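User: Modeling request: complex.
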Amino acid sequence: MEFIDFLLEDFFVTGQPLIYGAMVSIVLVSIAIVFVLSYFKKWGWLWREWLTTVDHKKIGIMYIIAALAMLFRGGVDALLMRTQLTLPGMEFLDSQHYNEIFTTHGTIMIIFMAMPFLIGLMNYIVPLQIGARDVAFPFLNALSFWSFAFGAMIFNLSFVIGGSPDAGWTSYTPMAGATLNPGPAQNYYLIGLQVSGIGTLATGINFIVTILKMRAPGMKMMRLPIFTWSTFITSIIIVFAFPILTVALALMTIDRIFGSHFFTLTGEGMPMMWANLFWLWGHPEVYIVILPAFGIFSEIISTFARKQLFGYKAMVYSMVVIAGLSFVVWVHHFFTMGAGGAVNSFFSITTMLIAVPTGVKIFNWLGTMYKGRIRFDTPMLWSLAFIPCFVIGGVTGVMLAMAAADYQYHNTYFLVAHFHYVLIAGTVFGCFAGLTYWYPKMFGHKMNEKLGKISFWFFVIGFNVCFFPMYFLGFAGMPRRTYTIEPEWMALNVTASIGAILMAIGFAVFVYNIYYSFRYSQRETHGDTWDGRALEWATTTPVPFYNFATVPKIEGPEAYWRMKENGRTTYEKEKVEPIHMPSDSGVPFVMMAFMFIASFGLIWEWIGIAIAGLIGVLACMVIRSFDYDDGFYVSVEEIKQTEKKAREGEQ
Amino acid sequence: MSELTKRIPKQHVVGFVGSIILTVAAAWAAVGSDLPTPWIITSIMVLAVIQAFIQLFMFMHMTETESGGIQAGNMLYGFFVAVVIVAGSIWTMSFGYTHDHGGGSDNDNETEEHEHMDH
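Assistant: Request completed. Predicted assembly structure:
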């Protein structure tokens, strides 16, 4: 009886019709997946082809699929919030439920949508752009993905089991501490982020080594495609910033589960130290999600303007400067803490300085398009929409950077509008642009142009209709994270909700387009879909698992463009040699499944289960240490066969 | 390799002599000098940092490999970030915090400072 009471009162979230609906749908979808896999006898295929793969291309695709699912979940959260805020006195969500939803919306969109989406694109594209056959550490790459996937699963479990965290994606102490926030909800946040953080850190290391060590001969650093450069800079920021989050999360976990006093009000704790550490990671984090998007836009604008990227070196150096500045601006997130004139002035100025390298990049994109013969395909449309929208976000960011003025804007909808303008116009447009651009390389067919344009216009118009009014709501004094609105804010809130619906339609069309293109799009016969310039377009479509039959020799920037001008390909038939490739492994999946069990124990403070899970993780590490399988060779015969088949359409 | 063996290892000699001088200077500052304590601590720290760089560049061949520039850049960035995290946190977080809850003289100073800021 006691156990059943526990299940009904604490374990499962009860009393919310929306959540009952979610539970039912989760159960139904799970049954459907199990049924389909069993019916079509696909379990073996799933395990062999996907769960155990170490191929950077497949891992990239899994990242992107997971990120799209998370975009859906975060988007549903957003729609629920917009519904509640449309009219004054709405009783759609109560305050507790609203708090949980804005917390999960923020956390999911940043940690489980934006980063995995970009990391997915990096995974697929970067090795192709530098002429490598895989990343430097393929096993670690699989481990990264599964740590993200299980971390995301842990976090998403919270809303049906145990309750969602409700202290905001920033989880400020003391509100997120054990005294004011007892129970497992906040632990889900801490452990979910911790587990997926392992993967992000490993990805950072992996890509630094890949880009430094795996480049094809002649691919000097200053000849790298700009997306690879942005990945490189991003990876460096990841490696330096993520340990701060790891430490901060660990300290708060120890506070909550073992009763220490790092961030508590009592016992000499410093609650604001959490905010300090969080933003020491958190500000570099926003550059982690924007720099790869900059790289994507640079590639696309250069390809579709049919011109070499204007000011390549300036682009690279401005990213380096942004990486440096990203670590010295964090206090602007809590100017109102009252750290005094000297501190606030310093961080005001450093924040404004960020506008300089960013501005340089904006002018570089404009310079690239100047006198170019622009093609208006869907990826280019996203890139064109990005520039003005992002400038609005950037300029309002400089307004927020003024510490004195920030006392007015702080925690109002002005801020909400600002960061959605930079994150959606920058990162989300970037992800959509990048996916549409590289889609033919990944799946062998383009996304339908007409549907792509419909989804683009719905999304971009919806985005502006949704978030532009929020600047004015901020001026009118509407506070962030409020769950009811005053009557005088109604008109603008109704407008914003209409915008949100338009964005939802745009996203739905985008997803439908994936299905539609899978069914009806013409298959690509040639690897170079868009008349591209960087090396990834030199591969055949679909890309063979070893990427390049013969390692290409690079003679200058824009490697593939140069090859096309000289009438060469990367494939030299007489020079084919056996290719060494890494073996697949189930260890990453199993290891992170054990980590999932350990996390679940820690979240519920069931230390026995946590220890059992960690022993499993340790056992996997031991197994891996004694794994002497160092890969296999692909025979010359097989390579020639594959290449012949892949290149049939080109002649 | 042949180039390395035939010549006098100039870098190593310079690094070695430099290290000895810096160590002796630090020892003298701590034991033999009449400098006030804060100065002694500061000078030892500065000498230590200089010596760390000598070690990295002269002995550990940081810049000699193909990607030496990147190694050096990464390390400098690491130092920069570490300093920012530690010094930056202390600087921003020390304002207005006191561990003296007894209402002693320190606490009074703190209150005065707050009042001063308000004007």
